[in-house]
């Protein structure tokens, strides 16, 4: 584990986990010294006793202009993280702030790392359905984004676009509503944040709501009137998006905020009252804040973004989502745009699109809906239910020590598996819905920096989780077919193999998972992977096309898909943009108008911005 600092605490009681909140699980089996020794021999670091109330500083290396190591404070709560604060600056862009820049961009772990199979990612088929011609952009240099945004992207190591970004960025810059359907790990967050923030750069003072000057009046408070609203189903996903927004907002004078359940509501309310231009929120906490018009108003919204939209349409969130969209629909801005992103696109999604999006919205599909990326090696192994724990331990010892994500079926099983592995000397941590938000954030942080490189979780808790260098995903329990198991499997293994990086996914299978067998067999065939003997009878015949029960392939949308004149199928080279589509009056590159550089009446931007 040379990449991570995993030094143990020698004086710690290694028999039991420490938990600062007093809610530690009951003691597990006695510590197995022999098993722990084998884990050390295989290269796994010592397990770390967890103190959820400890938030020590984390050392990160400075950027290219900084030769010394600098301690960057790790905040207790996500909303306390370093971000732009308005200080009465003149001009349309904020000043260069060396300390803040170091906080946001200083660590090399914050830079995008392309995988060795990045070329495969770039060859994924793209299908663009629209009455508008959308010319893809191959690099951010050519995308027409604001110079300050381009500089932020470079600081993060973003240069080339992914397929979903190549079409979404110009579509958003040209003012269209967008539905983006792409495989997990395809760069969807950047696809909506980069163009939306770019269009507002230089206009924060003109378009934004009231903002207090905290440099002259630290106690001043205002009503939050965001220009961008991003809604995501889980706290962890919201925190990820917020972290990205903090960096991309640098020097924009746009102040990002976050609101999520489990965090201190009074502190989150106070943070919003300091001014909010970009709000990232979970549905429940957002609805709570929407009930107080003195705290939050949505009438200034320019962009409403729904991430993991398919997950948000489940029964648990459907009512929340309808209320949120109804509130966003009250935006008084005629140029308001809806952006929906998902890995799947079923009938519920189409109904949502027809209700809220403009009739001529752009639909961008990258790869087959609900497919996996070819950089993931999938392996299905038979393991009897009563032998899973031993099989998991053996699998981890036989695998190279690396960031590993383990999925189980229930919160109780999370605790059982975590306790079992920890007491056999493996560096684990875990999250589930019953953990406090502070515990969850601490566990994710420990996993992200590699202090605890094995994370056990349920599928719901890890939805949308994006952590660099997850090399191995293990389905200790496969998802149930009765509870959207096919999509859940795709989302789980999509935590690895991102952005061209190589990843592995191992799934424990037995007779209880038979309902999922035809899907697993077809998925292995689609990705040219080995089919185990016990799944061979479920494999589709070689002379028949694969069928994944995709109910969206033949859907006719309002913008005229039945004529087949509006579909841009980019084939194996998604960047050529050469297929015939219906042209509009101005369908060239978005560069001239994306941030108000040209005053042309037919352009999106220009004088109207």
TrEMBL record:
<keyword id="KW-0378">Hydrolase</keyword>
<feature type="region of interest" description="Disordered">
    <location>
        <begin position="550"/>
        <end position="609"/>
    </location>
</feature>
<feature type="region of interest" description="Disordered">
    <location>
        <begin position="1"/>
        <end position="51"/>
    </location>
</feature>
<dbReference type="GO" id="GO:0003676">
    <property type="term" value="F:nucleic acid binding"/>
</dbReference>
<dbReference type="GO" id="GO:0005524">
    <property type="term" value="F:ATP binding"/>
</dbReference>
<dbReference type="InterPro" id="IPR011545">
    <property type="entry name" value="DEAD/DEAH_box_helicase_dom"/>
</dbReference>
<feature type="domain" description="Helicase ATP-binding">
    <location>
        <begin position="169"/>
        <end position="363"/>
    </location>
</feature>
<dbReference type="InterPro" id="IPR014014">
    <property type="entry name" value="RNA_helicase_DEAD_Q_motif"/>
</dbReference>
<dbReference type="Pfam" id="PF00271">
    <property type="entry name" value="Helicase_C"/>
</dbReference>
<comment type="similarity">
    <text>Belongs to the DEAD box helicase family.</text>
</comment>
<keyword id="KW-0547">Nucleotide-binding</keyword>
<feature type="compositionally biased region" description="Acidic residues">
    <location>
        <begin position="550"/>
        <end position="560"/>
    </location>
</feature>
<dbReference type="InterPro" id="IPR001650">
    <property type="entry name" value="Helicase_C-like"/>
</dbReference>
<dbReference type="InterPro" id="IPR014001">
    <property type="entry name" value="Helicase_ATP-bd"/>
</dbReference>
<dbReference type="Pfam" id="PF00270">
    <property type="entry name" value="DEAD"/>
</dbReference>
<protein>
    <recommendedName>
        <fullName>RNA helicase</fullName>
        <ecNumber>3.6.4.13</ecNumber>
    </recommendedName>
</protein>
<dbReference type="GO" id="GO:0016787">
    <property type="term" value="F:hydrolase activity"/>
</dbReference>
<feature type="domain" description="DEAD-box RNA helicase Q">
    <location>
        <begin position="138"/>
        <end position="166"/>
    </location>
</feature>
<keyword id="KW-0067">ATP-binding</keyword>
<feature type="short sequence motif" description="Q motif">
    <location>
        <begin position="138"/>
        <end position="166"/>
    </location>
</feature>
<feature type="compositionally biased region" description="Basic and acidic residues">
    <location>
        <begin position="31"/>
        <end position="44"/>
    </location>
</feature>
<keyword id="KW-0347">Helicase</keyword>
<dbReference type="GO" id="GO:0003724">
    <property type="term" value="F:RNA helicase activity"/>
</dbReference>
<dbReference type="InterPro" id="IPR000629">
    <property type="entry name" value="RNA-helicase_DEAD-box_CS"/>
</dbReference>
<dbReference type="InterPro" id="IPR027417">
    <property type="entry name" value="P-loop_NTPase"/>
</dbReference>
<feature type="domain" description="Helicase C-terminal">
    <location>
        <begin position="391"/>
        <end position="547"/>
    </location>
</feature>
């Amino acid at each position: 584990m040379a990449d991570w600092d995993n030094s143990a605490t020698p004086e710690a009681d290694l028999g039991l986990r420490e938990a600062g909140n007093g809610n530690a699980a009951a003691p597990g089996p006695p510590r197995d010294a022999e098993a722990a020794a084998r884990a050390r021999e295989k290269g796994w670091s010592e397990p770390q006793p967890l103190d959820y109330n400890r938030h020590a500083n984390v050392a990160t290396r400075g950027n290219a202009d900084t030769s010394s190591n600098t301690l960057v404070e790790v905040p207790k709560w996500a909303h306390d993280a370093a971000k732009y604060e308005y200080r009465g600056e003149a001009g349309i862009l904020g000043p260069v702030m060396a300390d803040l820049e170091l906080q946001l961009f200083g660590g090399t772990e914050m830079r995008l790392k392309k995988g060795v199979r990045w070329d495969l990612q770039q060859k994924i088929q793209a299908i663009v359905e629209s009455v508008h011609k959308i010319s893809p952009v191959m690099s951010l240099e050519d995308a027409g984004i604001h110079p300050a945004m381009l500089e932020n992207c470079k600081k993060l190591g973003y240069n080339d676009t992914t397929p979903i970004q190549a079409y979404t960025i110009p579509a958003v810059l040209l003012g269209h509503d967008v539905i983006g359907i792409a495989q997990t790990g395809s760069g969807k967050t950047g696809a909506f944040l980069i163009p939306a923030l770019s269009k507002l750069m230089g206009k924060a003072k003109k378009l934004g709501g009231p903002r207090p000057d905290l440099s002259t009046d630290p106690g001043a408070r205002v009503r939050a009137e965001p220009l961008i609203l991003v809604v995501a189903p889980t706290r962890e996903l919201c925190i990820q998006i917020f972290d990205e927004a903090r960096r991309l907002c640098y020097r924009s004078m746009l102040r990002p905020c976050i609101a999520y359940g489990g965090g201190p509501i009074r502190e989150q309310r106070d943070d919003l009252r300091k001014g909010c231009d970009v709000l990232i929120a979970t549905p429940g906490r957002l609805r709570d804040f929407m009930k107080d018009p003195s705290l939050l108003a949505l009438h200034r919204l320019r962009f409403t973004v729904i991430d993991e939209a398919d997950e948000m349409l489940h029964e648990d969130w459907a009512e929340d989502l309808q209320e949120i969209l109804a509130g966003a629909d009250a935006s008084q801005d005629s140029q308001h745009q809806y952006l929906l992103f998902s890995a799947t696109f079923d009938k519920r999604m189409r109904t949502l699109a027809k209700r809220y999006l403009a009739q001529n919205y752009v639909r961008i599909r990258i790869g087959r809906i609900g497919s996996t990326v070819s950089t993931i090696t999938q392996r299905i192994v038979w393991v009897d239910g009563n032998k899973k724990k031993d099989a998991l331990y053996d699998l981890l010892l036989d695998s190279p020590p690396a960031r590993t994500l383990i999925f189980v079926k229930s919160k109780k099983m999370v605790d059982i598996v975590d306790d079992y592995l920890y007491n056999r000397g493996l560096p684990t941590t875990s999250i589930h819905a019953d953990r406090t938000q502070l515990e969850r954030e601490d566990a994710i942080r420990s996993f992200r920096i590699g202090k605890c490189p094995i994370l056990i979780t349920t599928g719901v808790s890890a939805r949308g989780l994006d952590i660099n260098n997850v090399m191995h995903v293990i389905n200790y329990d496969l998802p149930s077919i009765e509870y959207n198991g096919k999509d859940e499997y795709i989302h789980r293994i999509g935590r690895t193999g991102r952005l061209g990086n190589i990843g592995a996914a191992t799934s424990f299978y037995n007779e209880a998972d038979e309902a999922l067998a035809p899907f697993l067999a077809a998925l292995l065939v689609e990705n040219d992977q080995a089919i185990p003997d016990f799944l061979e009878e479920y494999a589709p015949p070689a002379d028949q096309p694969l069928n994944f029960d995709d109910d969206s392939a033949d859907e006719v949308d309002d913008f005229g898909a039945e004529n087949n004149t509006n579909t841009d199928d980019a084939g194996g080279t998604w960047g050529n943009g050469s297929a015939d589509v219906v042209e509009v009056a101005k369908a060239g590159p978005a560069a001239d108008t994306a941030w108000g550089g040209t005053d042309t009446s037919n352009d999106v931007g220009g004088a109207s911005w």
